[in-house]
Amino acid sequence: MSSPKQSKPKARLPRGFRDRGAAEIMAEQKMLATIRAVYESYGFEPLETPAFEYTEALGKFLPDVDRPNEGVFSLKDDDEQWMSLRYDLTAPLARHVAANFQNLAKPFRRYQTGTVWRNEKPGPGRFREFTQFDADTVGSASASADAELLMMASDTLEALGLKRGDYIVKLNNRKLLDGVLEASGVALEDRAKRGIVLRAIDKLDRLGVEGVSALLGQGRKDESGDFTKGAGLSPEQAHRILAFVAPDAEDEDAHLRQIGTLVGSSAVGAAGLNELEQIVRLLQASGYGPDRVLFDTGVVRGLDYYTGAVFEAQLTFPIRNEDGDEVVFGSVAGGGRYDDLVARFTGQQVPATGISIGVSRLMSVLASRGLTASAKAPLIVVTVFDKTDAAASFAMAQELRAAGLRAEAYVGNGKMGDQFKYADKRGAAIAVIEGGDERARGEVTLKDLALGAELAKSVESRAEWVANREAQKSVKRGALVTEVKAMLKGRQ
Amino acid sequence: MSSPKQSKPKARLPRGFRDRGAAEIMAEQKMLATIRAVYESYGFEPLETPAFEYTEALGKFLPDVDRPNEGVFSLKDDDEQWMSLRYDLTAPLARHVAANFQNLAKPFRRYQTGTVWRNEKPGPGRFREFTQFDADTVGSASASADAELLMMASDTLEALGLKRGDYIVKLNNRKLLDGVLEASGVALEDRAKRGIVLRAIDKLDRLGVEGVSALLGQGRKDESGDFTKGAGLSPEQAHRILAFVAPDAEDEDAHLRQIGTLVGSSAVGAAGLNELEQIVRLLQASGYGPDRVLFDTGVVRGLDYYTGAVFEAQLTFPIRNEDGDEVVFGSVAGGGRYDDLVARFTGQQVPATGISIGVSRLMSVLASRGLTASAKAPLIVVTVFDKTDAAASFAMAQELRAAGLRAEAYVGNGKMGDQFKYADKRGAAIAVIEGGDERARGEVTLKDLALGAELAKSVESRAEWVANREAQKSVKRGALVTEVKAMLKGRQ
To answer: How far apart are CA A259 and CA A270, in angstroms?
Structure first.
């Protein structure tokens, strides 16, 4: 255990990593349990894959180089093969399905929650380790599979306490945009141009129609004077795309008719419209109307691998950031249909669709709505008056625990004053004291620590000091559990 | 996503890693929730630390070399500093305590459950990634802290369903052995010799008194002819140590008197006896007698960093291995007092004690006792007769879920035959079918899949085939939930 420099190591964490405390962990546990319960009620079952995968299996080698992408944490195994820590839960799923294809009941529907790692530059609120919660359906090209995920996302957000109207799950289809591009004379094979168009549309919220229009055309100079090269579309082409993503139709039916016109005779566009209509019909028949799941052509999702439906769950209310400013929070979950991931391994296309929840983002949202109230039960600290006889305190803590309460006997070496400070610092609700005289009388003292702290703040006169005494109560030793429960009840 | 060799990547995992399926994950979830509930009832609170730590902070550099120990997974960060994946949860705890010492309520009592990684040679049942569940108390030298952990371990095993008598939590103290060594004339500073003695004693179960005696003396030749060099103790010294670890005393009191004689005038031995007696007294007064927590001088624990009390939870019943042979299972949890870990960072000794559960080992034990019955609720699969109208099936699945059942509408593209095969493969309890004629009559069919499968096994005659029809039942569509519940109840 010696460090190479023989000096004492610093007690610190690498950048972009952090420790997490009880309140956050317990609130997250509760949230994850709720999501799990909804997903399991839909018949999804859990899968776990390891932290490491072969870099090759993750598809994370740099182009034309025998070295992993720097965005993932990678190391060489004993046998000189590169392994990487998973950077999402989708790539491991594709590997799992390819490896076990024959044995899986298909459609294969699994959920997975776990840590993923990104070897990226950390920043405020941006960590290199975080948790995702994914649900995917592999082996079904049916609109039912997409519709089910959208219903499940809506149910999940409501199960977590968000009210209908506080969130919206948005739906779009990549094939529609492809159809509009094709109808505009942009070849579908021109992946580079398609990428520029996708990224431009993704900025609609921030840059508005004019900014996106410039990015679809020759390009755009931003406020700092930097120039971003555009997609090089003609004004007519750009107009067509803008009419698609920022429609001026009066209602959804008119919008769909407009899209029909925009995709024209494009086969892929027609396929997209057909998929979309099937999903929307199923959603509406199941009670998931546009107040829960909404068609929105502005949703494109950044990732290149989506091939059909794309989803995004958003909040409709503003969130205050740490500076107290209202900010648009963006999405808490997203996903879509990807039909090519398994084919990487097998050469065979396997239709798949999935949705991923950003766990810490969703936690922030719930916290801002007061929906992450502590899952901690109130704590009772039984002090130890006579160190040579801790057993009496242990017996009391045991009795309290047996009654379903959270209770501990003090296990340190401190004097009574230290023990009260400890109980305060722990945020304990009640301290139990059994002094020598009390024991002789068959009594113990209960101290209501929360009330005591409240009263102490206003101690300004002798009268108040006396009132403060009410935060303390002598009770019969035999009535310990009953009296503690009564005091806890009085605090609510 | 291109691989360097432009060929398709293989769908496989690095050696020593594995995927885990629903049954195992759900049983483990349930087990972890039970452990968490016991630990939280004792007032322990969760802490999470990241997967990565600086290699320096883990104390995992090789002696005199600027390179990490090969037993841990390590890589260099952007800034050329070595990071390693945690190989246990104790080293990160020490780092956390050292970094946050002033702000922690002390004694600091936390539990942590999480993945740890060992870059070791994998083998059958030996993985390079596994889960630990630790509880530690930092900042208390009191016997209360050790006793509490022992009580908590006993309570946890019983909360998981193990009967008293099926397990035993064993307790020893390193200082007793040190006292015996000192009284035998082995210098406490001779860490190398002490290490050989510890490892020899650890083999008592396997080699017996004679084998250990040889290892304490000049050495031992095993069956294959390999010679292991011994500690080089004299016969008298070896005898004294053997009298300690394999006592011939009639009862515990006689054993303690014997130990008193063996440690003689050794100060460290006397301190060990005193610590042990305090812990045992507290345990006995709290109802944790030798049927739950037992003093056993044979328990030494391999790790070098223990400084006082050492613990080990063992099973008292034999386990059958995969070949059906009865094997001694060894420990499912272990720990002890370590007072030097935080000092690595701060130079200041901080007393600490902890216990760690090997999660997958404990799972195997519970499984062998039938205590990991599936946490899965029975699954209902609602088939889709007419693909253009999946909404009717979704509505039924929704109704069943709203009634608290686990239900899914089939989301694949298969025909009815495929759908039944799917339901079978999923282990579904009931399939729901609404054909065209049935819908006209306002009816649906429930198929008891488990019963059907059972009956199908014995189809030998026409009569039995008719009986088989009883696995199927036509019910009113409006009575779907009631009838499904009744059928599930009948299956129990």
So the answer is: 10
Homologous superfamily (CATH) for B379-491 = Anticodon-binding domain (3.40.50.800)
A2: pLDDT strictly greater than 60: no
pLDDT tens, position by position, A255-284: 888 888 888 889 999 999 999 999 999 999
Q: Which residues of A touch B109 (CB under 8 A)?
A: 408, 411
User: Rounded to 5 degrees, what angle do the CA atoms B161, A376, B41 make?
Assistant: 35
Token pair, residue B139, equals 């900042």
Q: Which residue ranges in chain B fall short of pLDDT 70? A: 1-6, 302-303, 321-322, 328, 373-375, 452-470, 491-492
Q: Is B45 on the interface with A (CB under 8 A)?
A: yes
Q: What are phi and psi of B59, to 5 degrees?
A: 65, 40
Whether residue A107 is preceded by a cis peptide bond, meaning omega within 30 degrees of 0, is: yes
Quote the minimal CA–CA distance from B62 to chain A in Å.
Answer: 8
Q: Rounded CA gap, A262 and A297, in Å? A: 12
E strands in A345-486 = 352-358, 379-382, 406-409, 430-433, 443-448, 472-476
Query: Looking at A97-222, which runs of residues are DSSP E strands?
Result: 108-117, 129-138, 167-173, 219-221
In angstroms, the CA B371 to CA B373 distance is: 6
Per-residue exposure over B94-104, b if at least 16 CB sit within 10 Å of its own CB, e if not: bbbbbbebeeb
CA A197/CA A179 separation, integer angstroms: 13
So what CATH class is B22-51+86-368?
alpha beta
Residue A200 near chain B (CB below 8 Å): no
The dihedral region occupied by B456, where left means phi > 0, alpha psi between -120 and 50, and beta the remainder, is alpha
**Residue B62 DSSP label:** P
- As a whole number of angstroms, the distance between CA A477 and CA A441 comes to 9
DSSP SS3 for A9: coil
Cβ of B19 within 8 Å of Cβ of A117? The answer is no
Query: CA–CA separation, A82 vs A72, rounded Å?
Result: 11
B137/B144 Cα distance (integer angstroms): 10
Closest approach of B193 to chain A, Cα-based (Å): 19
Q: Are B402 and B414 in contact (CB under 8 A)?
A: no
Q: Do B342 and B327 form a contact (C-beta atoms < 8 A)?
A: no
> What pLDDT is recorded for position B247?
77
pLDDT digits (tens, 9 = 90+) for B351-387: 999 999 999 889 988 888 888 866 678 999 999 998 8
Radius of gyration of chain A (CA): 30
Sheet with strand A430-433: strands edge to edge: A406-409, A379-382, A430-433, A443-448, A472-476
Same fold, B22-51+86-368 and B379-491: no
Residue type, B263: V
For residues A71-101, b (16+ Cβ closer than 10 Å) or e, as one string? ebbbbebeeeebbbbbbebbbbbbbbbbbeb
The β-bridge relationship of strands A430-433 and A379-382 is parallel
Instruction: Return the domain boundaries, chain A.
Output: 22-51+86-368, 379-491
Q: Does A489 touch chain B (CB under 8 A)?
A: no
**B37 contact residues in A (CB cutoff 8 A):** none
Please report residues of A whose CB lies closer than 8 A to that of B99: 11-13
The three-class DSSP label of residue A275 is helix
The Cα B384–Cα B390 span in angstroms is 6
CB of B326 less than 8 A from some CB of A: no
Distance of CA A321 to the CA centre of its chain: 17
Considering only CA atoms, which of B431, B343, B321, B421 is closest in space to residue B380? B431
Identify whether the C-beta of residue B437 lies closer than 8 Å to the C-beta of residue B418.
Answer: no
